[in-house]
Write a structure and sequence with these properties.
Layout lengths: L3 H18 L1 H11 L6 H21 L2 H28 L7 E5 L8 H13 L5 H12 L5 H6 L16 H11 E7 L8 H11 L8 E3 L10 E4 L2 H6 L3 E5 L12 E2 L2 H9 L30
Parallel strand pairs: 1-2, 1-4, 2-3, 4-5, 5-6
Amino acid sequence: MLSAPSWIAVVGTVAALFTTAAFVPQIVKTCKQGGRDLSYGMLLVFLSGVLLWIAYGLMLGSRPVLLSNVATGLLVSLNIALKWWHERNVSAPAPSRLRVAIDMDEVLADSLGKHLRRYNDTFGTALDTAHVERHGIEGSVPPERRAAAFALLLEPGFFRDLESIEGSVETVRALTERCDVFIASAAMEVPTSFADKYAWLRERFPFIPPSNIVFCGDKGVVEADVLVDDSPRQLARFQGRPILFDAPHNRHETRFPRARGWAEVRRLLLEPEAQGAPRSMAATSSALSSKPELARSSSM
């Protein structure tokens, strides 16, 4: 049977083992979660107390006190180091991705080209994009034909088989790897286009999730960093950085940075410095006049 001093030594040793081992589960948790529930203040105060216990053990010449507190001090120090490393390297928030909104008509899809073909077939004319560029939308179609020309957009399936603008699919796919990309179409201006536009986008741009397809009227409500659009009217209302996508009807517009095709969009948004473009680069120019357009969503 153990003597009283021996029992005291056993109890002290077991207590030292338990209090020291208590830090092992915390180290495992810190490795997984980063020690969010621990404060540096508590750890440092506890480590200071452990260091004093080590000094006390040295003065007494007590090996159990000395060894147990050295082990505890190492575990506490490891916890502090893991917490610091995790906060610096693992828990640091990832840099926010640029939010890019992209128009559909005349930016992704050649709706103007189809509209001109349908107009010419219907009225036996030879209207082309050069005429639209010289005379604008208002001056390209006689007033008595404007209602009928707009009605062509309401035909079932008009927006279902549009051709893609050259370079759009490849560039938008590249943008999705580094940005949060949204398709923002002013479909409210041609309400019958919803189903056709959605089906077209899912077919030509299947990598854009449905949740990132926005049908709206005024794109001033779109919360994005950048808007790529062919409509100066929409860019004037947008609160972020505007990029005017070149189209025949906007060739004389000078208020916004212009992208003459998708190669320039790629350069503007995928070069390293473009990722940090501030939202403060919003359009500050006055709104366009509110003259009715022949086909507001397709710019024709």
